[in-house]
């Protein structure tokens, strides 16, 4: 049985931990409001851009379509762009993202495809390297980025487009979390290269003439669409990280409180037992005299 001093020290230690988790919870809650607003504000723009691109893409086909739209003509080599966080203490968020990436990798490899990884963020590197050490194509560090920055998304997009144009892969999939609430962040996978054309284009009776032509507009629009997709993924990651962190720290604070209560009861019982033992010894000594 632990001594009274050991119990007292442990209670003190858990209280200190509880103060830290409570502070982290409050910080995450404050950051979550801003991150959530940014992620939600970016979604309509991305949807509208995809609609415009779909309208243009429906008017071009074959060799006249830009490379980023028509693809290499093969679907053998797949690149998984996995967007994880750079910090921990956010529950099972990163584990779920890695799980989704591994699920996609196993499905593709079962079809006989070649799979490689492009890792964004630090926390997903170790578990993926453990199983796919020889298939890590590149890593992108966002640890110095205080807030999601479009310039960072541009750098990632430019690197991916360059690799695609150099023939290093045929298809790229983006694996990232979608923020739904502080309690729910769902990892999802979407194809970003070649840019998937919508299955159905919006029908309209109006005749639209483009200047310059559709191909020239798409040449400029497609890279911008890829950058927007990556920037949206970084925004979703930030909101998901803060939501998951707030929930995890709230649970940790509650668990610390429960542990403090249990240790306090154990301390009081041990203290009472010690006092009772001392009283019995005093009474027994007095009777002996």
TrEMBL record:
Gene name of this polypeptide: atpG
Name of this chain's protein: ATP synthase gamma chain
Keyword Acetylation assigned: no
GO MF terms held by the record: ATP binding; proton-transporting ATP synthase activity, rotational mechanism
Source organism (scientific name): Aurantiacibacter rhizosphaerae
Function: Produces ATP from ADP in the presence of a proton gradient across the membrane. The gamma chain is believed to be important in regulating ATPase activity and the flow of protons through the CF(0) complex.
Compartments, record wording: Cell membrane; Membrane
Membrane topology: Peripheral membrane protein
Keyword Cell inner membrane assigned: no
UniProt xrefs under SUPFAM superfamilies: ATP synthase (F1-ATPase), gamma subunit (SSF52943)
GO cellular component: plasma membrane; proton-transporting ATP synthase complex
Keywords on record: ATP synthesis, Cell membrane, CF(1), Hydrogen ion transport, Ion transport, Membrane, Transport
Lineage: Bacteria, Pseudomonadati, Pseudomonadota, Alphaproteobacteria, Sphingomonadales
Primary localisation category: membrane
